[in-house]
Amino acid sequence: MRKTYSTLAAASLALAAALAAPAAHAADYAIDPTHTFVTFEIDHFATSTNRARFDKKEGTVSFDRAAKTGKVEITIDTTSVNSGTPAFNKHLQSADILNTEKYPTAKFVGDKFVFNGDKVAEVSGNLTLLDKTLPVTLKASKFNCYQNPMLKREVCGGDFETTLTRSQFGVNYGLNYGFSDSVRLVIQVEAVKQ
Questions:
Q1: pLDDT of residue 26
Q2: Residue 114's CB: how many other CB atoms inside 10 A?
Q3: Among 37, 51, 164, 177, which has the minimal tally of Cβ within 10 Å of its Cβ?
Q4: Distance between terminal CA atoms of the chain?
Q5: What is the mean pLDDT of the chain?
Q6: 2: alpha, beta or left, given left = phi > 0 and alpha = psi -120 to 50?
Q7: What b/e sequence results for 13-28 when a residue is b if at least 16 CB atoms lie within 10 Å of its CB, and e otherwise?
Q8: 57 in any annotated domain
Q9: Structural domain contains residue 6
Q10: Which residues cross the membrane (predicted)?
């Protein structure tokens, strides 16, 4: 009987300790703009691929590996689009495509994280572009966290990508010429723990 009480008491103490233990909290990270790149590419008459990137972006990430939850917000300055060719940049900024005068930013907010073990495998959320908000899932081709030796802080990041149907956002330029409606969007991101 005494053994039963001892076992019951030990189990009660273990349960109380587990309940009293601090809950896992999400860690907050700030996106490092020097190691974060937002690029896109689109087929050009099935002959070559047009590529460009956005030079200005900012955002935050909050995630909890133990709970397998998180949230990411990335704001992109669409006026900073850079193809490497000034004339093409001007056309990308025009009302034909990004209409940056009227819509100078795009934003991705993801709040559904899918993990493969302790690594983020994909993030689902919404992309707002040209004042239209649509669901988007970014799939990770790699993800890692490491202790940055220079910053003395944890840095997490990876390469994420998705394929957009641009006409869903109202970008129809060139469809009648045979330009692709599909755009590959790649977000290479590193974020520093705060």
A1: 82
A2: 13
A3: 177
A4: 53
A5: 89
A6: alpha
A7: eeeeeeeeeeeeeebe
A8: yes
A9: no
A10: none
Q: Which domain holds residue 178?
A: 24-193
Total of domains in the chain: 1
pLDDT per residue as tens digits for the range 58-104: 999 998 988 999 999 999 999 999 999 999 999 999 999 999 999 99
Instruction: Please tell me the number of Cα atoms within 13 Å of 83 on its side-chain side.
Output: 15
Q: Give the tokens for residue 174.
A: 């060139």
Could you tell me the CATH number of the domain that includes residue 114?
2.40.128.110
Per DSSP, 14 falls in state H
Question: Are residues 125 and 107 in contact, defined by beta-carbon separation less than 8 angstroms?
Answer: no
8 in a domain, yes or no? no
Is residue 71 within 8 Å of 31, Cβ to Cβ? no
- In whole angstroms, what is the distance from residue 58 CA to residue 53 CA? 14
- Of 41, 7, 2, give the one whose Cα is nearest residue 182: 41
- The letter for the amino acid at 61 is V
E strands of 55-194, at which residues? 57-64, 69-77, 81-82, 105-116, 119-129, 132-148, 153-165, 182-193
Residues paired with residue 58 on neighbouring β-strands, in sequence order: 75
